[in-house]
Amino acid sequence: MENTHRLRATEDTRTNRIVERLLADRHSVALSIALHLVPGALIVAVYALIGAPFTRAIGYPIFLAWAIALAVVLFPLQFGLLWLGRRRNGHYSLRGVLRYLDKPFSRGKVTAIGIGLLVYMTVVSLALIPLDNLVFDTFFTWIPYEGAGGSATTYLDNYSQKFLVITLLICLPFTGFTLPLIEEYYFRGFLLPRLPQLGRWAPLFNTVLFSVYHFWAPWTILSKIVFLFPGVWFVWSRHDIRASIWMHPGSALLATTVGVIAIALGVV
After folding, report:
1. d(CA 77, CA 213)
2. So where does this one cross the membrane (predicted)?
3. Backbone region of residue 61 per phi and psi (left: phi > 0; alpha: psi in -120 to 50; beta: other values)
4. DSSP-derived secondary structure letter, 200
5. Distance from chain centroid for Cα 146
6. What CA–CA distance (Å, rounded) separates 91 from 82?
7. Which pLDDT tens digit goes with each residue over 79-125?
8. CB 168: neighbour CB atoms within 10 A?
């Protein structure tokens, strides 16, 4: 019995140290790099081991496999943030875990800024598709992922309208909003504020690593840096995460919704 108590005490001490390190005001650069990139590696692993085999077995677009992989990794990640809140606050909460939640701007002002960032991200990401194609054709044709290509729609190519609409409708609540929202909470609300030692380089550091985190589409790293950085910089400089929520989950929701409608109407 005494040994059991000692073991539990040791485990509690280790857990407390991990919690303290994660909730510290400052993450080391090495820790931050790991926290940025490990989720991306896990997503690729889940895709290869679970998502892709399952999706191929049921004959659906491979895009569904990536949606499954993202969900399997990001939902537990969100729970992990809530668990950290429970360790700090005594109940499941994001207070004290996430930063930039204080809403320094009025709802109207942040909405206007958010819409501007959403439009910027949407327009610039579309304008940079030729760059993505060039980078893919030059450096990444060896990538083994099914449907890999410079365009974001290659994961949906060569499937019937019915399968495309069903797939996108299934994915809409997840890849169209919830999963990008979790990414914003984690990357912008949790990781970005804990890099004070980088000063003005923190938003660029965060943007670059978030772009690299997308291991399943490395040919889009450059374009992601370009269209994500303004939103990340705004969140960092103005301490209001709502702007990047408008930009990232907002643009994902817009793109997915428009895509579903366009495919259903036979426009594309």
Report:
1. 14
2. 29-50, 62-85, 110-131, 163-182, 203-233, 245-267
3. beta
4. G
5. 21
6. 8
7. 999 999 999 999 999 999 999 998 888 999 999 999 999 999 999 99
8. 23
Strand partners, 95: 98
Three-state SS for 74-130 is: HHHHHHHHHHHHHHHHCCCCCECCECCCCCCCCHHHHHHHHHHHHHHHHHHHHHCHH
Measured between alpha carbons, how far is 253 from 181 in angstroms, rounded to an integer?
10
Phi, psi of 140 (to 5 degrees): -125, 20
Separation between Cα atoms, residue 84 and residue 191, nearest integer Å: 13
**Lookup: tokens for 88:** 């700090």
Q: Give me 126's structure tokens.
A: 């579309």
Residue partners of 214: CB distance under 8 A and separation at least 6: 40, 220, 221, 224
**Cα–Cα distance measured from residue 16 to residue 20, given in angstroms and rounded to the nearest whole number:** 6
